[in-house]
Amino acid sequence: MSVPQTLSLRGGATMPAIGLGVYQSTGDEAVRAVESAIAQGYRLIDTAAAYGNEAEVGAGIRASGIACDDIFVTTKLKPDDYGEESALRAFERSEKALGVGVIDLYLLHWPMPKRFDDTVASWQVMERLLAEGRVRAIGVCNFNPDHLEMLAERCEQAPVLNQVELHPFLVQENVRAANAARGIVTQAWSPIGGVNRYWDSGEDPLTHPTIVTLAEAHGKSPAQIVLRWHLERGVSAIPKSVRPERIAENIALFDFALSPDEVAAIDTLDQGRRGGPDPDAR
Ligand SMILES: NC(=O)c1ccc[n+]([C@@H]2O[C@H](COP(=O)([O-])OP(=O)(O)OC[C@H]3O[C@@H](n4cnc5c(N)ncnc54)[C@H](OP(=O)(O)O)[C@@H]3O)[C@@H](O)[C@H]2O)c1
Fold this sequence. Notes:
This protein has helices spanning 27-39, 54-63, 84-98, 116-131, 145-154, 173-181, 194-198, 209-218, 222-232, 244-249, 260-267; strands spanning 6-8, 14-16, 20-21, 44-46, 72-77, 103-108, 135-141, 161-165, 185-189, 236-237. By secondary structure, it is α/β, with parallel strands linked by helices. The protein has a domain at 15-200 and 234-244: Alpha-Beta Barrel (TIM Barrel). It binds NADP nicotinamide-adenine-dinucleotide phosphate. Residues 21-23, 46, 109, 141-142, 163, 189-195, 197, 206, 221, 223, 238-243, 246, 249-250 line the site of NADP nicotinamide-adenine-dinucleotide phosphate.
């Protein structure tokens, strides 16, 4: 199936389907990764206040020679900063650290259901930032369907995007369906199972025989097979790498396709197993 290189967000913005993640990218390495990604055609960079590298992301974008306005920048409000006044101050710190003008997409980093009043207060700050044109779109991360409902009951704006852990071992079909029903784009974090390698020392999706066999059949890498699977399912993905050759590999996804049977074969690898934190735990 052919897949679009961009996705439309409710409200009118257009976002590249593939972007660069920068969790654990630090210092000059982060600056160079962003610069390299932009040189290789990336136009979406995903960072967060919690990653401590917004300044490096901004420096990489400015060094790229491409206008800041042509790069779609996502950053996130960390739970420590939830609350009416603290959220606004944290936003202003992110805005200053990035130094790229208007932030394209501002996300709540975790739902924090055990202190949801703070989540609601933070979302209301984000609604105001949107109304004032200080961000172009607002969304959430790690929201289960019940968290989306809790937000809808108390807030005016619905998120345009929900970024969740999603890879072949955690397919999150219920979350994808709930997002779709609300017109919310699903975006995969750890799209190539990074979390299975750096936290969860279990199996790695990139070495699973189904993925390796498909990679051999298509003459592509395991990462490219998994990333193409996300695109075939209408899911945005933000693979992280600091290595130029992998950064290039992770966006070279548009000269081959997976058949519906091949997509379904990867769907069956789901183990419902999280590598990252449970969104209900805090
Ligand atoms: N919202 C949230 O709560 C949340 C949580 C986690 C992550 N995120 C976002 O999602 C992004 C991606 O997730 P992630 O960093 O957890 O994991 P990932 O992108 O699935 O995997 C990244 C890991 O895979 C390696 N890698 C990259 N390309 C590869 C390739 N082609 N072949 C083999 N290995 C490859 C990277 O190492 P090298 O760098 O050495 O290449 C890195 O160790 C993050 O960077 C961050 O922006 C969001």
